[in-house]
Design a protein that fits this description.
By secondary structure, the chain is α+β, with helices and mostly antiparallel strands. The protein has 15 helices and ten strands. The chain is 59% helix and 7% strand.
């Protein structure tokens, strides 16, 4: 039997060319950028951006198209694109004021303007000449010590956005010259904590950068604080938007859970509940879900914005802390309201439940979204639904464990309140009978808790991964 070829199946394989311009060669297939025969390191996303602009050379590429192509699986701020372009220009030896290669198109995007770009077969031999590695511009312009002018720039206090961009560029150049030597020369001069935090943050943007440790170094606490503030300033808008979407997702999930539970309760055999309980339970579920989603979403978003090297632990801790805080607030308000309005003393939960479910959501979300080097994870297509399914399962299992430990969620708490209130219609005893128990017992509690937790996790994940326009 003959083997079926790609051509007989109607599939035409187009070879990927390499691009030659000026003294540079860009090979998308080998993922290499060479200058006079010497490889120029670029982090993967910046290399993808350069290739994309070369592929669409001559046309002004909109920033939206760039974000969709290069940062399609994460959400980043506009400053991330500016940072990428600045780094590419540095590697190419380009200038923003008189560009040879990359030109900024105001209020639109960027354009690759070098006219003489040759496409070559990447299977052929590389006809290049060996040459010394290019010297960074700062080193070429400095008469004696190339480090000192750059160190003075990073160890100063920025007063505006332009100063911050200038400092980031100086930090990148210091990494290009040598990270360890830059740290040694930085020492403990004034504002060294600010400079060390800046070097730590920009090391993710420079392929040849070395490690920038914080623990065990001078002013480690101050450096960590400056690093947190630096990253929060850069991602504040993204974190706020993600926090809001997490809250909305949790609220929608809680509303659905409350409404469905109310409908089942009214239809259950022996139930005295009327249809009036459906909107009431939907409102209660939506409120609790929104508060929980806000707490967990805020913890996740802040942790993902400020931590890169220990992402899993950071997201677990942030989500657990946010969930625990939100749960404690709901718990206090609930018990205070019941005591003040109805004279009821019901042992409602909240803090521990929020801590456990938040931690489970953080663990599932961090593991299922991978480890993006920058930005907030925002998977698309089937990957988004995989993240949703994994997060929903983890939250459902966490809720089940809580129920087995005698710590009910919203449904179980409503049942306890109804039992303590004379004439209440929303005891969940009919649901227990529907499941096969004589009353609302352990099996009923775990089934309902798992459903609540899974719905909350699904709504939270869908909200967090939704990409804004």
């Amino acid at each position: 039997m003959s083997l079926e070829t790609e051509a007989t199946r109607g599939v035409v394989l187009t070879p990927v060319p390499r691009y030659r311009f000026s003294e540079f060669i860009v090979s998308p297939r080998r993922r290499m950028l060479l200058r006079n025969g010497r490889e120029q390191p670029l982090i993967p996303r910046y290399f993808d951006l350069l290739v994309f602009l070369i592929e669409r050379r001559g046309e002004a590429v909109h920033r939206r198209d760039i974000f969709d192509r290069v940062w399609g699986d994460v959400v980043v701020s506009d400053s991330a694109l500016s940072q990428a372009v600045r780094t590419i220009r540095r590697v190419l030896g380009d200038e923003s004021r008189e560009p040879r290669f990359l030109r900024t198109v105001p209020r639109h995007g960027y354009r690759f303007v070098f006219a003489d770009v040759v496409e070559e077969d990447d299977e052929s031999e590389w006809q290049i000449e060996e040459a010394a590695a290019p010297v960074p511009a700062a080193a070429a312009n400095a008469d004696t010590d190339p480090y000192e002018p750059l160190l003075q720039r990073v160890a100063s206090v920025a007063t505006n956005r332009a100063d911050e961009e200038d400092q980031r560029e100086a930090a990148e150049l210091l990494h290009a010259l040598g990270t360890s030597e830059a740290l040694r020369r930085l020492g403990t001069r004034p504002h060294h904590a600010v400079a060390r935090a800046l070097l730590r943050d920009t090391r993710w943007d420079v392929a040849e950068a070395g490690d920038v440790p914080i623990l065990g170094q001078p002013a480690s606490v101050a450096t960590a604080r400056e690093l947190v503030m630096l990253r929060l300033r850069g991602a504040a808008a993204l974190a706020a938007a993600r926090w809001a979407r997490g809250s909305i997702g949790g609220g929608v999930a809680g509303t659905v859970a409350g409404a469905v539970g109310g409908l089942i309760l009214t239809a259950a055999p022996g139930s005295s509940a009327s249809l009036d309980v459906v909107p009431v339970l939907a409102l209660i579920g939506g409120g609790c879900g929104a508060v929980g989603g806000a707490g967990v979403g805020a913890g996740l978003s802040v942790a993902e914005s400020i931590v890169r090297s220990r992402r899993v632990l950071a997201l677990i801790g942030g989500a657990a802390l946010g969930g625990g805080l939100a749960g404690s607030i709901v718990q206090w308000l609930g018990r205070w309201s019941l005591a003040a309005l109805f004279g009821l003393d019901v042992a409602t939960g909240g803090g521990i439940e929020g801590l456990v479910i938040g931690g489970a959501a953080g663990l599932a979300y961090s593991l299922s979204t991978g480890h993006p080097e920058v930005g907030l994870a925002a998977p698309r297509g089937w990957r988004r639904f995989a993240v949703t399914a994994i997060t929903a399962s983890a939250c459902g299992l966490a809720a089940l464990v809580l129920a087995l430990a005698g710590r009910p969620l919203v449904g179980g708490t409503i049942h306890l309140i109804a039992q303590a209130s004379a004439g209440a219609q929303v005891t969940l005893t009919p649901l227990g009978r529907l499941i096969g128990e004589p009353d609302f017992g352990p099996l009923s509690a775990t089934v309902i808790a798992f459903g609540e937790g899974a719905l909350f996790g699904a709504g939270l994940a869908l909200g967090l991964t939704r990409r804004g326009r």
